[in-house]
Design brief:
- By secondary structure, the chain is mainly α.
- The protein has two domains: about 80 residues; about 60 residues, no CATH class.
- Helices cover about 55% and strands about 0% of the residues.
- It is built from eight helices and no strands.
- It is globular.
């Protein structure tokens, strides 16, 4: 999945307007314009499409955490570069205050089965033996599960 795909999915899941997206970037302490957001949300074949870089997505996700959980004391964390699927999954887990069981339930909504140990392997440090990289398929299913949980089934959309 590209960073632009992830941004599009998150926008759709919560039905964020351009103004709300700009505010979420601001909560991550990054100023963006409506044109920037619009160009990031365009499809790749559009001539105005702009690639969303890893630090920009990390800033947006940090803003989402601040919006949903509140600001922690001290400075915001530095945006990750490179940003991995594991980090994205962790930031969504933090923003939504999800436990492992909650994440497994969200994945189950899509028919995707994942065990507790498989899930916790995504949140380990990369140098640990049990660490596993989160593949695009898992992140895609998790985002789709969030869509089903928050917006309802496809028939209700």
């Amino acid at each position: 999945m590209t960073n632009n795909d992830i941004l599009r999915q998150i926008r759709y899941i919560w039905d964020f307007s351009d103004e709300k997206m700009i505010k979420l970037f601001a909560l991550g302490e990054y100023e963006v314009t409506r044109a920037m957001v619009s160009n990031w949300l365009k499809k790749e074949d559009d001539e105005q499409f702009e690639n969303l870089e890893d630090p920009e997505l990390a800033i947006f996700l940090n803003g989402l955490i601040v919006k949903l959980r509140g600001k922690k004391e001290g400075p915001l964390p530095k945006p990750e570069d490179p940003l991995t699927n594991n980090m994205i999954l962790r930031k969504l887990k933090i923003a939504l205050n999800l436990k492992s069981e909650d994440m497994i339930e969200v994945l189950a909504l899509t028919g995707f089965r994942l065990g507790q140990h498989e899930l916790t392997a995504f949140f380990r440090k990369p140098d640990q033996r049990q660490f596993r990289p989160c593949k695009d398929q898992v992140l895609r299913k998790f985002l789709y599960g969030l869509k089903l949980k928050i917006r309802g089934t496809d028939e209700q959309s």
